[in-house]
Design brief:
With 411 residues, this protein is of the alpha+beta class. It has three domains: 116 residues, Gcn5-related N-acetyltransferase (GNAT) (Aminopeptidase, 3-Layer(aba) Sandwich), CATH 3.40.630.30; 131 residues, Aminopeptidase; 109 residues, SCP2 sterol-binding domain (Nonspecific Lipid-transfer Protein, Chain A, 2-Layer Sandwich), CATH 3.30.1050. Helix content is 29%, strand content 34%. The chain has twelve helices and 19 strands. The strands form two sheets. Strands 1, 2, 3, 4, 5, 6, 7, 8, 9, 10, 11, 12, 13 and 14 form a 14-stranded mixed sheet that branches. Strands 17-16-15-18-19 form a five-stranded mixed sheet.
């Protein structure tokens, strides 16, 4: 699309020929190492997932802003749901304050809508910028930075820990991750290719891979250890049972140098925080990823529902993706939802028929479907308003109960 204003622009999917400009803009805006950038654009980047805003001058298009939408499948409400992860939102310094970032976000949502990606994820540089466009935080990490000896009340000798080659262990890592992810909601269904890319990235950061095995030499857990200045960063850890977790923590406690801190990010509900030894360190609930619904009707119809029959009316307000603003009549049966977008007059008739009805913002609906907040909590926060005497809250609590989300993808 072209705008006729002070800056004639073209916003479009880039081509492979545009890659040098995309790479240069990335280097201008982000402080990644050259080794990572060259790997990223050789192995990870794809033109068809990148939107660029070009300014045209004397027939020459110069890239001024770009964003990428990386496809993922998430496990949401017992549904393997296609989603998109917005990364690399960047604007050239001389082109800032022209609304390009906002435009890229809108175009990213339009692209996701066309591709049937029901949920949009992003990792913000700050939350404030994205709240106004309908992205709330939906994923949190429990972040612990402490002395390794603080693990002594939970760390126990168990199993055999051995260091292995990153790529040699890919099958074992994927098996343990899949078991671990089953405990949580909103997790990524990682493919073999996604695992390969994860491990290539880890290799760039000099990450070491450790497996823990039982007496039968069966792998029961893993952790990825990245050396940082004055810290041992456990970039990912997963286990099949608590004994394996205790054994890996014991190994870390025994092997982290005394002059280094342990930095470990765990799922929000992990119990390590209850078993710290002596020091009263801060344990941070770290806001990790934001998420929002791309297209309400697509999303509601894609989800799996519990075995019940229900009918309700939801009025949704979305000030950014205006196609979502409207009244949604839901009939739930046979584990699916039939969703009809109805006009204001019809919705008033439905409300008068005393069908459970509610009004909610896109942020609130996103948090409820993602499992971050329950319906009754959203009512207390005045994000969900009940429009009829017959409240929709019991139905909403049944179909979308609160969950514990976990994700560990950084792009």
């Amino acid at each position: 699309m072209v705008e006729n204003n002070q800056h004639e622009t073209d916003c479009r999917i880039v081509t492979n020929d545009d890659m040098p400009q995309v790479l240069h803009l990335w280097q201008t805006c982000f402080d990644d190492t050259m080794k990572f950038v060259l790997w990223y654009f050789a192995r990870y980047w794809k033109a068809e997932n990148t939107i660029g805003i070009f300014e045209r001058n004397n027939g020459v298009d110069t890239l001024q802003a770009s964003a990428q939408v990386i496809p993922y499948n998430l496990q949401i409400r017992n549904t393997n749901l296609p989603c998109g992860y917005i990364v690399g939102v960047d604007t050239a310094p001389e082109a800032r304050n022209r609304g390009y970032a906002k435009r890229l976000l809108k175009e990213s949502l339009c692209l996701q809508r066309e591709r049937g990606q029901a949920i949009s994820l992003l990792m913000p540089f700050e939350g404030q910028f994205y709240y106004r466009y309908g992205w709330p935080f939906c994923y949190f990490h429990q972040r612990i930075i402490t002395d390794a000896k603080e693990l002594r009340c939970i760390a126990k000798p168990w199993g055999t820990v051995r260091k292995v080659d990153l790529f040699e262990a890919q099958d074992e890592l994927q098996c343990i991750y899949d078991m671990f992810a089953m405990r949580y909601h909103g997790t990524v269904n990682r493919t073999a290719e996604q695992w390969r890319l994860q491990l290539e990235d880890a290799q760039i950061e000099h990450t070491a891979c450790f497996l823990i095995e039982d007496e039968q030499q069966q792998v029961q857990g893993y952790f990825l250890w990245t050396p940082l200045k004055e810290k041992c960063f456990v970039r990912e850890i997963a286990w099949s049972h608590e004994r394996a977790k205790a054994g890996m923590l014991y190994y870390l406690m025994q092997n982290i140098p005394e002059d280094q801190k342990l930095w470990i990010d765990l799922p929000e509900d992990d119990g390590l925080k209850y078993r710290m030894a002596a020091a009263k360190n801060d344990i941070v609930l770290y806001p990790f990823l934001m998420a929002r619904i791309v297209d309400v009707k697509q999303c509601l119809e894609a989800l799996w529902y519990p075995d019940l029959k229900a009918e309700l009316l939801l009025t949704v307000q979305d000030d950014f993706a205006e196609w979502n603003t409207g009244n949604y009549h839901m009939i739930i049966e046979n584990n699916r939802a039939q969703v009809t977008v109805v006009g204001e007059t019809v919705s008033e008739d439905l409300k008068q028929s005393n069908i459970p009805s509610g009004t909610i913002s896109i942020e609130g609906l996103s948090q409820m479907i993602m499992g971050t907040s329950s319906a009754d909590t959203l009512v207390q926060q005045e994000i969900l308003c009940c429009d009829t005497e017959q409240t929709p809250v019991p139905i909403l609590q049944s179909i979308w109960p609160k969950q514990t989300n976990f994700i560990n993808e950084y792009y």
